[in-house]
Amino acid sequence: MTCEACNTIPPVVAAGYEPKGKWDEVAGFKTYIAGDESTATKAIVTVYDIFGPSNQTLQGADLLAAGLGALVLVPDLLKGEYAQYPWFVNASPENTALKNAFMGKVMAFGPYVELLALVVKGAKAKFAGVTRWGGLGLCWGGKVTVLLSGPSAVYDASGQVHPGALASADAEKITIPHIVLASNGEDPAVVKEYKAILEGEGNPGVVETYPTMHHGWMGTRANLSDEMNLKEYERGYNQVAAYFGKRL
């Protein structure tokens, strides 16, 4: 039996999904927790995109928890202050000002990297039965995650899907197994550089582009009523589950 078969996720719910996990506190952060705390020996900390803990992201957490028999934690790093769609689609001086102020804050990644490190430390203390830890970031969360995947990595393996602020300099510092699933919205040249660094003989990394998918297809911007997005959302989470199943 292949790893992919071992870690096949449950069927994706296209509409009306009701999250199966619970909300609790981890290191002072409201955190969504999927999976069985009493039996899990591996866990993944997922960092959402700038739109926060959407149903599409929480379903992804539930899918990984079920597919891996793991805990999946989604900490509310932005503490309820998320990007709003009107800022991006309805041009106005007010929306532009709000968007620029928000983006200026969240794109200063350092403080969020420090907060995530605190969350992971707190999670390791809270869930003592977990011996292997993974990190997964969506869009903005991918950058926060990869910056904790270097010489002082807090994870045993990590990954990014439709990553934000992708930079090959980050890839050069990665010291743990790492997977990148890119959309057609990332710079192909940087994705290619990532692939050259992480893949190849003796390297455990995986870098793959989903060429028909927009930036955000596995997170808040996933349109699961679209047949192709639904298919590739499912394929993406299966691929992530298989990778963590092998590396955690």
Terminal-residue CA separation = 18 Å
Number of domain modules:
1
| Range of strand content | 15-25%
Helix content: 25-40%
CATH class: Alpha Beta
Low-confidence stretches: 1-5
What is the quaternary state of this protein?
single chain
The H/E string reads HEEEHEHHHEHEHEHEH
Overall geometry comes to globular
Instruction: Indicate the radius of gyration in whole angstroms.
Output: 17 Å
Pfam family, one: DLH
Protein name: Dienelactone hydrolase domain-containing protein
Domain Dienelactone hydrolase: 29-246
GO molecular function: hydrolase activity
Task: Describe the overall structure.
With 248 residues, the chain is α/β, with parallel strands linked by helices. Helices cover 40% and strands 17% of the residues. The protein has nine helices and eight strands. An eight-stranded mixed sheet has the order 1-2-4-3-5-6-7-8, sandwiched between helices. Helix 2 packs across helix 9.
Topology of this structure?
Blueprint: H1 3-6, E1 22-26, E2 29-34, E3 42-47, H2 55-68, E4 71-75, H3 85-89, H4 93-106, H5 110-126, E5 132-138, H6 140-146, E6 157-161, H7 168-173, E7 178-182, H8 188-198, E8 206-209, H9 227-247
Parallel strand pairs: 3-4, 3-5, 5-6, 6-7, 7-8
Antiparallel strand pairs: 1-2, 2-4
Describe the structure in brief.
The chain has about 250 residues and is α/β, with parallel strands linked by helices. The protein has nine helices and eight strands.
